[in-house]
């Protein structure tokens, strides 16, 4: 899942170089530099890819502290 | 001439928004808001000698001294505008600067700074502006708050295109059913935008490029968050833009319209990236297409509706060669007007200027004064003698107070540097940008590009 998350970030940022520079520890707002609009589009793309639904009202920016943390959050939604 | 008091909240759209309007998906970001709230420092560019600038957090003394050295002679508050211990940080952050001024305890620094009978020069008229005018005995002469709120909506801009017989691609939807129906029709031709009534660049505009995305947004609008709220959005096919630009004009209280400038924008996605003066080809094109007459007509209609003051109209040149003169009306000051006023102050022949923003992060406490020193050591800090270099426009945006962090805690914090670059040619501009990046990194900032 980690690789797919990174691929979607690179797609949203339109920066293929991120495929090499990002890893599980990368912060989505600091290292990947997703801005507020890109975060929404990123989450909508993730929903599509993993067939989940994120609750925007309770979503915490802490989930974006690393690719691994975000992947774990998505995995948690997928098994519900 | 009477002195003016300059202040404002640059996230004006947040305060105009009616609470009962449904919202598009978004994630509250207190850190991003803290940066925008600190942008009010940039209003120094509008100050004439002896004017007063009030900022939410107070300016770093090093920045104040630097601006004085550039012959900006204004007075400002050095301490934050705070309501005291009885009010929480959350309450305070929810207030715009005028609401904040209206609720300050008597006897504070602001009262000593503001001479009675000064003219208020707000970034935008917001709820609470008229009350601040009364409390501090400032001169009236501002349009009423409801009018300003109305003329800043996307539906007002769309209706203005019809009033002026301009091509109008906007559709207004008032229900989820209308959104689904109109959205599906638009999708057959290509991606489209859902625009919030008070959306701003980077926020409040949702690009829809698939049926699944459309039904997800529709589902969100029917969720508990939006239950019982009014649906009102503007749908527009995504324009294939070649160039973004905007024009700035002023409508005085008698209805006289003065065109001030046109600024070209380099946006990153939908967000502000850089603004610079357009070259002659764009200006010739605008003249030929009667663009200035359209701006005057917009000004006349705004005045007829009760608005006067500053206006920034967003426009586009499209890849098919056509001109979209009215994308959006912003009845307030703007980043482009800030850029125009920097140009007015510098007034140097043969010099180019642009306004940039650099997104940053810091891992601990960083001293703004040190950044100024490094820029000076690198030989790129603008001075009137050199006439070329970097002018940092705000100190507080680099490391704004983060309400989500307790005092004294460390960890990453986001910020932004807003700066004007004055340069003789593109090579010099590249050199300034490279040395600016190096100075930021050496001072302890991480650049988030």
From TrEMBL, chain A:
Pfam families: PP-binding. It comes from the Bacteria. Residues 1-78 form the Carrier domain. This is D-alanyl carrier protein. It comes from Paenibacillus graminis.
TrEMBL record, chain B:
InterPro entries: ATP-grasp. GO terms for molecular function: ATP binding; metal ion binding. Keywords: ATP-binding, Nucleotide-binding. Signal peptide: none annotated. The keyword ATP-binding applies. Residues 391-412 are annotated as: Disordered. It comes from the Bacteria. Transmembrane segments: none annotated. Residues 158-362 form the ATP-grasp domain. SUPFAM superfamilies: Glutathione synthetase ATP-binding domain-like (SSF56059). This is ATP-grasp domain-containing protein. It comes from Paenibacillus sonchi.
